[in-house]
Amino acid sequence: MIKIEDIKPSKFKYLNYNKKETKKFSKLEIENFRIVPIFLIFLTFSFVFAPQSFTQTTKKLPPEIEEKKKSLESQLQEVLKQIEKYKAEISKIQKQKRSIQQEINLVNSQIKKTELEIQAINLQINNLNKKINDTKKSIALTEEKLKKSKNYLTALLRYYYQLRQRSVVEIFLAGAYLSDYFDNFYYLQKLQENINQEIDNLKNLNENLNKQKIKLENELNEQNSLLTLAQIKYKELQDLKQEKNRLLAQAQKLEREYNKKLEESERTAAQIRQEIYRLAGGAGPITFGEAYDYAKTVEKFTGIRPAFLLSILHYESKIGQNVGSCHYKDAMKPSERPIFEEIVKELGLDPNKMPVSCKPWYGWGGAMGPAQFLPSTWMKYKDRIAKITGNNPPSPWNIYDSFVAAALYLKDNGADKRTYEAEWKAAMIYFAGSNWNNPSLRFYGDDVMSIAQKFEEDIRILERR
Q1: Most-buried pick from 71, 119, 240, 426 (CB within 10 A)?
Q2: 254/246 Cα distance (integer angstroms)
Q3: CA distance linking residue 438 with residue 433, whole number of Å
Q4: What does the domain layout of the chain look like in residue ranges?
Q5: CATH number at 19-57+283-463
Q6: Which H or E run includes 204?
Q7: Which residues in 18-31 are b (16+ Cβ under 10 Å) and which e?
Q8: Residue 408's closest CA among 448, 380, 367, 440?
Q9: How many CA atoms lie within 13 A of 115 on its CB side?
Q10: What is the pLDDT of residues 256-276, one digit of tens each?
């Protein structure tokens, strides 16, 4: 059975009657009790539940219903084909989206790489500009030194020339020593050599600095060219990213459109399945009295109180009225699907036409029939159900088989003790499994027991017939 689905049932309308009047009626003789038949007719129509299931009866459907059923099955197949087409398109679009997103991610990584390249080139350009400026300053300084050295050498050469023009007589008349003259002459000669050497060095330095400057400027031009190329590449990548984002947005819009169409088709398929299920019941709706007859029969084999069993089945599926409307591949846990296929195959049914409970937000759906058993749970009880009902194989959609299945499960969990505590606990296990003692889920057991009490009162009225 499905767990924690349809958390609260809709309010069930019970018959209201005056307890004092009931006591008064109980004192009258049955044969004189004229109001009871009318009251019972009203009661019967007040408890109309679901149609009987596909396998409940072997009675052939009326021709007009059979024709309508076949027409609906044909429509269902067309809708299912359309659903598969939509799913295929959505899958294709999702692949395109993933491909586009991968391309966007690649473009983003290339953009980041290019940004780093531009940043590195700018740093290199700034460094080259600094080196070029430093080289220019060194060249200017060297040229200034060279100019000063040349001026100093010119003055020295002029003095040297003047010194060489003096005769020995002039030197003696000037009162100078001859040795001093020659010393000065030698000093000037050495100084000239040193200045010439410094001039040569400064020329070499200036030449090297100019070569360095030219080299740096060439490098700067190269880096500027690289920067221009990187900026062009960056612009192209940004344009490509914009185009990919546009394509992604188009794919997302198309996916939303197909998802909307898919949802509409799935709703249509669910409605058709529900209508087929209703038509296939054949025998028409089951009354409360008929449901009670099933429950009484089941009681003989399981010891489960009829009112309690009816309250469980009412809460789970409105006694088969709400058995679900979804396709098993959409709603059922993957591990349950092959078991489901095995069950319907053995019954000679088409799994694509058998409705199951829909997938809730908190987990998986896929519960079957009035008792809302999951396929794996049904298989555990299959042989025991067949032994009681004589239906081999039993069907989850058969009213009698469902009653027996639910009763056996409740019996296994202690409900046959027929105490309030035992039934309440069995109801909680039916609903929540191992989480039966969770305080937040108590409402299920409380509501089931409340419904069972009201059913018990209605059963007492039926038993007066």
Answers
A1: 426
A2: 12
A3: 10
A4: 19-57+283-463, 96-264
A5: 1.10.530.10
A6: helix 178-280
A7: eeeeeeebeeeeee
A8: 380
A9: 8
A10: 999 999 888 877 876 776 666
